[in-house]
TrEMBL record:
<keyword id="KW-0472">Membrane</keyword>
<keyword id="KW-0812">Transmembrane</keyword>
<protein>
    <submittedName>
        <fullName>Membrane protein</fullName>
    </submittedName>
</protein>
<keyword id="KW-1003">Cell membrane</keyword>
<feature type="transmembrane region" description="Helical">
    <location>
        <begin position="96"/>
        <end position="117"/>
    </location>
</feature>
<dbReference type="Pfam" id="PF02656">
    <property type="entry name" value="DUF202"/>
</dbReference>
<dbReference type="InterPro" id="IPR052053">
    <property type="entry name" value="IM_YidH-like"/>
</dbReference>
<keyword id="KW-1133">Transmembrane helix</keyword>
<feature type="domain" description="DUF202">
    <location>
        <begin position="12"/>
        <end position="83"/>
    </location>
</feature>
<feature type="transmembrane region" description="Helical">
    <location>
        <begin position="20"/>
        <end position="38"/>
    </location>
</feature>
<dbReference type="InterPro" id="IPR003807">
    <property type="entry name" value="DUF202"/>
</dbReference>
<feature type="transmembrane region" description="Helical">
    <location>
        <begin position="58"/>
        <end position="76"/>
    </location>
</feature>
Length: 118
């Protein structure tokens, strides 16, 4: 059996994969929360039209967008880190963390606006 480039750094690659899968789970949870809020709003009769419906729709759309952004960026991040591990040029990157954090703060603001106003 021949040794591959990846096999030199097995633990690092496995950690990279675990991190990637954690980002995927987080993205799915974010999308699920958005669907839950929208479902609860429209299923409980809280829907009276107007601004509350628009706000809930924005929360639902934003949660899906944040989830998709997290999936795309985490996949790109995973592939870059894999190459960096093999090349021994690993550098940590905070762009994905800052982006998702900023988008989550916007979504949290919408949640508070919804619960405060309605």
């Amino acid at each position: 059996m021949r040794e591959t480039e990846d096999s030199k750094y097995i633990q690092q690659h496995l950690a990279n994969e675990r991190t990637y899968l954690a980002w995927i789970r987080t993205a799915l949870a974010i999308m699920g929360i958005g669907f839950l809020i929208v479902n609860v709003h429209f299923s409980t009769g809280a829907s009276v039209g107007g601004q509350s419906d628009q706000l809930v729709e924005m929360i639902g759309i934003l949660s899906v967008v944040i989830g998709l952004v997290a999936i795309v960026f985490s996949t790109v991040h995973y592939v870059r880190k894999k190459k960096q591990i093999n090349d021994q040029t690993f550098t940590s990157s905070l762009h994905l963390v800052w982006l998702i954090s900023a988008l989550m703060l916007v979504m949290a603001g919408l949640f508070f606006a919804y619960f405060y106003l309605y």
